[in-house]
Amino acid sequence: MSTQSTAAPADDTLLAVEGLSVDFETPRGTIHALRDIDLTVPKGKVLGIVGESGCGKSTLAYSLIGLLAENARVASGAIRMGDHDLARLAPSAWRDLRGTRIAMIFQDPMTALNPVTTIGQQMLDIQYRDRIGRNAKRARAIEFLEQVQIPDAASKLAAYPHQLSGGMRQRVCIAMALLTQPDLLIADEPTTALDATLEMQIVALLRDLQRKFGCSVVFVSHHLGTVAELCDDVAVMYAGEVVERGTARALFHDPQHPYTQALLDCDPARIKVATRTLPTIPGTLPDLRQPPAGCAFRARCPRSWGRCERDHPPLYPGAAGQRVRCHLSDPAEDAA
Amino acid sequence: MLFYTAQRLVLSVVIVMVAVSILTLMLHVVPGDPAVMILGPRATPELIERTREAMGLDRPLPVQILMFFANILRGDLGEDVFTGRAVSQIVFEQLPYTMILISVAILWSAACGIALGAYSALRRNTWLDTLSGVVSVGTISIPAFVMALYSVLIFAVWLGWLPAIGAGDGFLDGIVHLILPAFAIGVAWVGYIARIVRASMLEVMTQPHVRMARAFGLPDRRITRSHILKIAVLPAVTLIGTGVAHLFSAAVFVEVIFARPGIGALLVGAVNERNYPIVLGAVLITTCIIVLATLISDLVVALLDPRQREDI
Ligand SMILES: Nc1ncnc2c1ncn2[C@@H]1O[C@H](COP(=O)(O)OP(=O)(O)OP(=O)(O)O)[C@@H](O)[C@H]1O
Ligand code: SF4
Ligand SMILES: [Mg+2]
After folding, report:
1. B222 to each of A122, A129, B219, B229, B266, how far by Cα in Å?
2. For ligand 1, is residue A56 a contact (CB within 6 Å)?
3. What is the tens place of the pLDDT at every residue in A91-141?
4. Closest Cα to residue A230, out of A106, A45, A55?
């Protein structure tokens, strides 16, 4: 497929994030958690979002489904999906999109389900819009529990969440999300809370079901191995910015941004060995209340020089067709 | 679940026995001899001695307590010192008045408290939330008997809208007579319940399953009802269960103030007359009901919360 650097034709794009900035108001100042994010989610493809803790992955994911915290504010930018700008959507319009065109799977399956209601009731509840009978809804619930390979699905309808294991609960969440037949499925670290074996199973399941149902997926993860396995495109985030994005192939085989390189370098077998978490790179994230003027990665970058302190790097086209927010990729630097 | 219930029942019996033993001890510390009370000031010492013997008051205290329990097991709570009527009969005659009073107080205060707490949580930090907080804390700190006195003064004496005295005759009149006492007892509980429901709603609202419900576009009302309130009322149920003891003590004052029949009025009268069998019988039954109420509230919580059902 074509890389993201060449703007995809509009009909191939499900969702386009354009210059999105999100602030959190806190008593100790405004946190500029997302700054000028540009991304596209192609139809029927999986976009991976990676980056270390606190870089804004969840903030981005939640802004795509309108579930940002109360102290959050979209400072600028747009999120285009069809005729909608999701960044400026009224609450009632959001309710019409959620659970119909957009669905989400959460990080912790242990707490994502209502603890005092049966699985079956929760699966019926989310079908409240459908004008079909209760039995038909039940049948659909069972069908989707079977899709996510839950054994003895019919009997699970009467179970309460605490009676199921973490892996089973995450399968239930996936089944619920798919049951609504969304165009866009957002998964915020859906496997982080699970152990390694379960993680592999769930990722394989997600991949199969994504192909089967053909929905687009935004997959947030700490785990480079799963991203490589699942994603068509990848965006690497650092301190509230996208620092590199492109096809998974380009990013894993020819990373251009020093941050992406550091992530992959720390992983000796690159993506082949399943690393559970992102490698740690020396140094810490900059203070998001006052993002640095130049390159956000400067303080930790082994290759920084004077320009990195002065100029904020834009997204330059990279060697393998990706986009790179680093002056090293500035064609003008090569010329100099 | 069954084991848990059995365990709790055994514990309840122990609690009741301890309570009755302590009460018997306390009655002996209180000045005033029941035999003298019955016979009047001019009774001869021999007569007093004989009466004490007949009432078992001459035996050592532990024996008295054991005898009392032995009689309970036979369904015998003793006899009224003055009239000779069975205590159990007297107590069960009065009990319905108090039970109705307390139940109505619980029902109206729970309904208002849950509604007020939920409203405050959903509109937190608005002026209505602040107002409900101030009013709640205010009513919590006013004792039921003060509430009773003022409500009699305002609604019965000044406005003359409601009767001040008695329990009324017949169904409708009974209800009219219930309004003021049930108001006086319940009003503090509206505050308690509102506060606890508000706090637990605010906590439940931040839980991930609520965000998940939003992610599926469920209507706000449904999220509030079945994803937030259903969990947030659980602490209130426990509070009400443990609060039945307070309700009984409030009922004692309120029954006296409103000259209503009931366990409270019976108890106060019996204590004044040193009518020990009635005091013991009334306290025994009250303690049983209090212990039972805690048990019931725990079972209701277990019924509403499947996680508890598993644990217990
Ligand atoms: N409600 C909030 N109020 C204030 N700051 C917030 C809020 N939510 C997130 N942040 C801040 O925004 C930044 C991005 O947070 P976010 O949760 O999006 O990171 P993340 O990449 O998902 O991290 P993780 O991998 O730990 O989930 C962090 O600095 C975080 O402290
Ligand atoms: S712009 Fe400079 S500091 Fe930033 S990543 Fe590139 S080389 Fe490093
Ligand atoms: Mg996160």
Report:
1. 12, 13, 5, 10, 47
2. yes
3. 889 988 999 999 999 998 889 999 999 999 999 999 999 999 999 999 999
4. A45
Of the candidates B216, B307, B310, the beta carbon closest to that of A126 is on B216
Give chain B's domains with CATH numbers. Answer: 100-262 (1.10.3720.10)
Ligand 2, atom 1: nearest CA belongs to which residue? A326
Interval B210-263: pLDDT, tens: 999 999 999 999 999 999 999 999 999 999 998 888 888 888 888 888 888 989
| Helix runs in A126-240, H state only | 134-147, 153-156, 166-179, 196-213, 224-230
Pocket test of ligand 1: the residue of A37, A59, A68, A74 to mutate, having most ligand atoms within 8 Å of its CB, is A59
Mean pLDDT across the stretch B163-180?
77
- Mapped to the 3 state alphabet, what secondary structure does A93-142 carry? HHHHHECCCEEEECCCHHHHCCCCCCHHHHHHHCCCCCCCCHHHHHHHHH
Question: At which residue do the structure tokens 């016979």 appear?
Answer: B39
Residue A116 Cα, gap to closest chain B Cα (Å):
5
Lowest mean pLDDT among A207-216, B28-37, B290-299: B28-37
Cα distances from A336 to residues A16, A201, A290, B268, in angstroms, run 35, 50, 32, 101
Residue A277's pLDDT is: 55
Q: Which of B125, B203, B216, B307 to mutate to test the interface with A (most CBs of A within 10 A)?
A: B216
**Contact call for residues A213 and A181 (beta carbons, < 8 A):** yes
CB contact residues (below 8 A), chain A span 261-300, against chain B: none
- pTM of the predicted protein model: 0.84
Three-state DSSP class for residue A51: coil
Ligand 2 atom 6: residue of nearest CA: A326
* Least confident piece of the model among A231-235, B83-87, B169-173: B169-173
Amino acid letter, B207: Q
Is the CB of A65 inside 8 Å of chain B's CB atoms?
Answer: yes
Interchain pair A116, B307: CB under 8 A: yes
- Rounded CA separation B36/B50 (Å): 11
Evaluate if residue A3 carries a pLDDT over 50. Answer: no
Using one digit for the tens of pLDDT, what is the confidence trace for B46-62? Answer: 888 887 777 777 778 78
Shortest CA distance from B222: residue in chain A: A125
Q: Which residue of A has its CA nearest to B215?
A: A98
Asked whether B71 and B56 are in contact (CB, 8 A), the reply is no
CB of A59 within 6 A of ligand 1: the answer is yes
Beta bridge partner(s), residue B86: B79
